[in-house]
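Quick one, T. Sequence first:
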Amino acid sequence: MERVTGKMALKTVAGCVLALSASAAFSGTMGPASVSAGRVYLGVFGGGGAVTGPDMRQSATAFFIEAQGGPLAVDGKGSSRSSSTGMIGGHIGYAWNNMSSYFPLTPAVELEGYYMGGVELKGHEISSDTVRLDAHDFLVTLPQKTGVFLVNAVLNSDNTAFGRFRPYVGVGIGSAVVSVSGASSIQISPPEPGLNHFNAHTSDTDVAFAAQPKIGVHFDVNPRTNVFVEYRYLYLSSTHYTFGSTVVAGHAATSPWLATTKSQSYNMGTIGIQFDL
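Structure tokens:
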């Protein structure tokens, strides 16, 4: 219940933030006449990077018969390796015009979404040693696909300072939908080669809090079109998944497996093109 409530809360907060930001973004064209008119723009981008391997955990109960010692709690913990990722996305934004020659910066707000694929978190030696087993280690693999949805506040340099080049910085918050498909947990000590302990069900989805700073530079191709390159750091909060029980003839059955990845940190570079509408 706590997990379901957390997911609903994250979705609600993200929805409220998006709605409020959309209202703010277009207030420049609908607000008082004293507000300087601005411009609406649309951008698309792509790139890639890497995620720093987060700590991982898996837990379940193995239902051994009493002659074998009775039920055994399995609670494995360990770290995972870094993984590369590719990404593609877009944004729509509203930028206000510079209202002072003494402050050559223009604020903007964006609604941004992007997809990340190719991440495969691998946890080596996820260990759950007990008094009944001196070694109880697993190799856990979680292939991830992630959709990220953010509201960004951006501060752009205008073109009076650097000609056609316009550096910018931004920060965003929102949520990410993280899907795992084809998860596996292979016991490597004592070895059980080829047996996926998640075999009854290998997919699940969770929602995480997302935050990112980014820094980049626009190059004006013409007054209404520019290309940009940027670096962005993405933080995702911890995610929780429920995978299927171990159901194999000759092996002790288990309860459904609970798997957790701690917060994830992505470093990414992107390149894109942006148009004024």
